[in-house]
């Protein structure tokens, strides 16, 4: 069964934290953002366009979210220990899983800088694209589930990672894991 969920907006460092936490604890993981990106790529779509498709065809999102929930509840040696997605904390909360549910909070400019370092482009264009994607996603999440990922209710811990490096975020997450035992 899942040991922890990691959530945050795109560019907040969730994928990096999952990778570092996986290495530090020798845990397996399931990255919802990677599933989303793979599906967009498989369909030859940009992330924004795929987000719009998910908004227009809510069954796509429901299928991805059902997979995440199923994986959270798996109780075998191959089950992922870390589940990462913007709604992973919500699903663990709604499934009443007594595990740490972390939200990484990172300001808009810092997130844009991280995306720029990973994918290139200008900060201004990345912020604009991020706002468009966030608006599409917010409409979709509200319509589907009447919630927003950043609402604090489901999270046991919020890490403000705007000025932290990946090792500092990892140290905080490891402390949370140790304290939850």
Strand order of the largest sheet: 2-3-1-4-5
The CATH topology is: Rossmann fold
Please name the CATH architecture. 3-Layer(aba) Sandwich
Largest sheet: 5 strands, parallel
What's the end-to-end separation, in Å? Answer: 14 Å
The helix content is: 55-70%
Figure out the total of helices: 8
Mean pLDDT: 91
Word description of this protein:
With 181 residues, the chain is an alpha/beta fold. It contains eight helices and five strands, in the order βαβαααβαβααβα. It has a five-stranded parallel β-sheet with strand order 2-3-1-4-5, sandwiched between helices.
List the main descriptive attributes of the protein structure presented here.
alpha/beta; 58% helix; 181 residues; single chain; Rossmann fold
Short description:
This protein is an alpha/beta fold. The chain has one domain (4-179): Rossmann fold (3-Layer(aba) Sandwich), CATH 3.40.50.300.
Task: Set out the fold topology.
Blueprint: E1 4-8, H1 14-25, E2 29-31, H2 32-42, H3 47-56, H4 58-73, E3 82-84, H5 88-94, E4 101-105, H6 108-119, H7 123-145, E5 157-160, H8 166-179
Parallel strand pairs: 1-3, 1-4, 2-3, 4-5
């Amino acid at each position: 069964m899942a040991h922890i969920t990691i959530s945050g907006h795109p560019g907040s460092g969730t994928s990096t934290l999952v990778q570092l936490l996986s290495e530090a604890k020798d845990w397996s993981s399931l990255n919802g953002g990677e599933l989303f990106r793979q599906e967009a790529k498989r369909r030859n779509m940009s992330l924004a366009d795929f987000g719009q498709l998910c908004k227009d065809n809510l069954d796509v999102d429901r299928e991805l979210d059902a997979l995440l929930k199923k994986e959270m509840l798996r109780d075998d040696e191959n089950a992922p220990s870390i589940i990462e997605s913007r709604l992973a904390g919500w699903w663990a909360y709604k499934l009443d899983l007594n595990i740490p549910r972390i939200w990484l909070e990172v300001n808009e400019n810092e997130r844009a800088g991280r995306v720029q370092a990973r994918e290139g482009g200008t900060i201004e264009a990345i912020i604009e694209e991020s706002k468009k994607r966030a608006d599409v996603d917010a409409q979709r999440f509200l319509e589907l589930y009447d919630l927003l990922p950043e609402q604090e209710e489901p999270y046991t811990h919020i890490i403000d990672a705007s000025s932290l490096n990946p090792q500092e975020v990892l140290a905080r997450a490891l402390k949370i894991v140790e304290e939850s035992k």
